[in-house]
Amino acid sequence: MSPFRPADRRRRGSVALEFTLVAPILALLGLAVLDVVDFLRVSLRLERTAGETANVVAQYQVLREADFATLFDLAARIAAPYRVTDTDGVVVISGLANQGSGPVVLWQRRAGSSGYASTFGAQGGSATIPRGSADLSLAVGQGAVVTEVFYVREPWLLSGRFLAGEPFTRLQSFALQRPRMVSILRVSAP
């Protein structure tokens, strides 16, 4: 005599069928959660890269043209394994100052892809302070150093259909620092 009754077999069969129907949905949901975690990890790495690079720039006593290669190398090392100074992104370092007629971009250097425009403006033009840093106001004679990091991130294959919008693929972070020495608001020759 069989230890299982016919009702038990039908119940086991319906559980297997339900699992077969629900498993792909659970797998897709699990991959989407992992992709969101990856998105957060990349975002935090970009924030760290921008913050630490801006902090290092702000500590210079005299900023020379030759120093930018070192600064961009530093940014690339902090952001690794994400290639922010290559074709996947760009690092933009700018010097801002208020010389009496509002904030302007005194100088700007970049490394990486050319497909990104600085949020703060272009060299020689008026500086636009983004909403996220509304507490920054430059009085006449004051300056700031800005590091922006842009990166293109590819969502994973299965979650790409759900997380393929601009906020999940084109990431950006910036950091503002007041320089310790006013002299770095000018870039000296090599």
From TrEMBL:
<feature type="domain" description="TadE-like">
    <location>
        <begin position="13"/>
        <end position="54"/>
    </location>
</feature>
<keyword id="KW-1133">Transmembrane helix</keyword>
<dbReference type="InterPro" id="IPR012495">
    <property type="entry name" value="TadE-like_dom"/>
</dbReference>
<feature type="transmembrane region" description="Helical">
    <location>
        <begin position="20"/>
        <end position="40"/>
    </location>
</feature>
<keyword id="KW-0472">Membrane</keyword>
<dbReference type="Pfam" id="PF07811">
    <property type="entry name" value="TadE"/>
</dbReference>
<protein>
    <recommendedName>
        <fullName>TadE-like domain-containing protein</fullName>
    </recommendedName>
</protein>
<keyword id="KW-0812">Transmembrane</keyword>
